[in-house]
């Protein structure tokens, strides 16, 4: 016996959630980039490594996602859910070190916030687009 499809939410229900999740994902994205930039420029002990190399390695994945996140593309938000796991792992590892605990906790929280808001945006955006296409 085939499973019955759940009805899609109404557009009135989806639109404010889309705006909120997009705003939260943009805030988390920008805050994560600012945290990485600020930490590496002001506080990090890089043990002789060039600052611009470390910043490039950490910020290039985020910069690749920036145009799609700003424009609100659902697939870019879905890709952000994959990419942000790198920063989540880095944050957890940094939180274990007492000298970088604050940075690690902030990075973990921001990456978790970006993951959840981007995930919700992706789901609701695809539902919104299906509803606009006339699906019941």
Written description of the protein model:
With 136 residues, the protein is mostly helical. 80% of the residues lie in helices and 0% in strands. The chain is elongated. The mean pLDDT is 93. This is DUF2069 domain-containing protein.
Helical residue percent band: over 70%
How many runs of DSSP E, i.e. beta strands? 0
User: How much of the polypeptide forms β-strand, as a percent range?
Assistant: under 5%
Query: From the alpha-carbon coordinates, what is the Rg to the nearest angstrom?
Result: 18 Å
Structure classification = mainly alpha
**Major β-sheet annotation:** none
What is the number of independent domains?
Answer: 1
Shape: elongated
Query: Could you tell me how far the N terminus lies from the C terminus, measured between alpha carbons in angstroms?
Result: 21 Å
Average pLDDT works out at: 93
Q: Which H/E pattern describes the elements?
A: HHHH
Poorly predicted regions: none
Helical region count? 4
Per-chain topology:
Elements: H1 11-43, H2 51-71, H3 74-96, H4 101-132
Transmembrane segments: 20-39, 51-71, 78-96, 102-121
InterPro entries: DUF2069_membrane
Keywords: Membrane, Transmembrane, Transmembrane helix
Quick structural summary:
By secondary structure, the protein is mostly helical.
Give a quick set of tags describing it.
single chain; 136 residues; mainly alpha
């Amino acid at each position: 016996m085939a499973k019955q499809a759940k009805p899609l939410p109404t557009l009135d229900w989806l639109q404010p959630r889309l705006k909120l999740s997009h705003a939260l994902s943009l805030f988390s994205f920008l805050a994560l980039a600012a945290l990485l930039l600020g930490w590496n420029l002001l506080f990090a002990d890089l043990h002789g490594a060039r600052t611009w190399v470390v910043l490039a390695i950490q910020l290039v994945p985020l910069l690749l996602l920036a145009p799609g996140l700003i424009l609100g593309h659902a697939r870019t938000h879905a890709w952000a859910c994959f990419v942000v796991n790198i920063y989540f792992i880095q944050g957890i590892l940094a939180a274990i070190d007492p000298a970088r605990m604050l940075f690690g906790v902030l990075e973990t929280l921001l990456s978790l916030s970006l993951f959840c808001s981007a995930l919700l945006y992706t789901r609701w955006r695809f539902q919104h687009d299906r509803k606009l296409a006339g699906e019941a």
